[in-house]
Amino acid sequence: MAGVRDRTIGVLGGTGPQGKGLALRWAQAGLKVVIGSRSAERAQEAAAEIAESVGGDITGQDNAGCAADADIVLAAIPWDGHQDTLLSLKNELAGKIVVDCVNPLGFDKKGPHALTVPEGSAAQQAESLLPESRVTAAFHHVSAVTLADTSVTHVDLDVLVLGDDREATDVIRELADVIPGVRGIYGGRLRNAHQVEALTANVIAINRRYKAHAGLRITDV
Amino acid sequence: MAGVRDRTIGVLGGTGPQGKGLALRWAQAGLKVVIGSRSAERAQEAAAEIAESVGGDITGQDNAGCAADADIVLAAIPWDGHQDTLLSLKNELAGKIVVDCVNPLGFDKKGPHALTVPEGSAAQQAESLLPESRVTAAFHHVSAVTLADTSVTHVDLDVLVLGDDREATDVIRELADVIPGVRGIYGGRLRNAHQVEALTANVIAINRRYKAHAGLRITDV
Q: In this entry, which stretches build a coiled coil (chains A, B) (predicted)?
């Protein structure tokens, strides 16, 4: 299988902070990126903003156009619209590697907490909605603030990459590795995605307590 | 509240690898430690073995004696006996800080996976069983192999400490900090313990893939 440098990376929800931050880092690393959004116009604006900031080959389309044009597609969409958006893109995403980075979280006066997902996790919901795609899960704990800050040239983070398709998780690990400082680490099968998504609630609690933009590193690897 | 150096640390299930490894490190750091086990004799044997290896003030008792004598009690018991053991020690544990480090996991031919716990997590089960104790959760991802290896003088690990009682989580963070290399980091409320326990399945998957004894570090804190 060809490496990520020969592929087009689509970012569904690429006008949101997490998607936009990753799109920026991938464009900066020289990958071909297509931002997707419900509004093609807003996607084009975000792409133009990134191109102006870091250069690179980055364009914008509506989500369906993004999914159709890309070889590898990151779903960086809100949990609220996760099911409907993916279902509507089933045909465009067939045969492609899909990376789910969605964290189903709720917030109340006690802070963040994980939501219960009938399928077990957002990633498993994606897998059930997209039986013809190669679904992986990764990029859950990236700090959007850090990604957007181009003065941060080394992003201190290990990205856990989950999935049952070895070749697909290897490609997504490579997609993590292209961001300076970031390492993609295999993190287990998709059935163990829930806790990785839910851990974002703990990361947010850490950020609040320590006024940090916390990330994870895996030691001894 | 007095620091951990003035307290007696009890380790329920202290003859198992995780409990024994932590008991060793705490005894080595100069804390007063009581190992608990179903069998007082096996607890005394484990304590004598640790004392011979690293010295320190460490003794053994049955679990009830351990819980009664200690000020801070680590529950390092198998998930299978979690409910019954804690229920039987309810009186001995009243008024004390209890640290739950239990990971409810299952294993099948696809590897490790998180079990569903009716209360949400082992820690929340402990909280519901021990209403008069101050329940926290921590030390989920420690490598028993690394702890037992006294040639490892710096344990490369951040310990996430969860709980709703700020003073109790501060004490347990200090209990982590006494092990050279280890940092105790506040990791959120007890309702967010499930994903920290379950993440041990991912850590095991990482260990298998990379032939490592993986741990976590939190960046930017």
A: none
